[in-house]
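Both lines are retained for reference:
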Amino acid sequence: MDLPERLKWLRIRHGLTQRELAKRAGVSNSLISQIEQAAVNPSVATLKKVLDGFPISMGAFFSLEHNAGRPVFFRADELVKLGSNGVTMWLLGPPGSDRKLALLREHYPPGADTGPEMLSNEAEEAGLVLSGEIEITVGEECRLLKAGDGYYFDTHQPHRFRNPGTQACELISAATPPTF
């Protein structure tokens, strides 16, 4: 997919008119039209300005795929491995910035936590404890959840996860919009 086709596809996927994207990016709508029609080849600086209207990085923009062959099923070894502080997370789904949901399998060994700082971002998060136990602090409230228990909260609230138990904790979580 070439640059003009890629830009048009991304704009339509975000439900934006050329005029709306131009306003967000601080450029003229005729420039957006000219890029999409391949009438002009934008400079790197101009393209970055246009992409900031979504927002999306240039790397993510050029790695976007929109074909019908987008994967639907993922084997365990195809999940994206993330984590720190002893916590391991596996992100389910195709790579790219157009995802609307992050679904994670999370593993907290005994004593592991998300770090000393409370986390905060722009999403809603829900999760279900599969095994072990996890202490979750959200704002001023703190709870110890065990297998079968769940949570749901607005992640604007400062929050933290910690495994105070003697066995590993496994949980599944989802966030929208994705924070990964």
Notes: The longest strand covers residues 124-131. Residues 21 and 53 are 6 Å apart (CA to CA). The helical segments are 3-13, 18-25, 29-36, 44-51, 58-63.
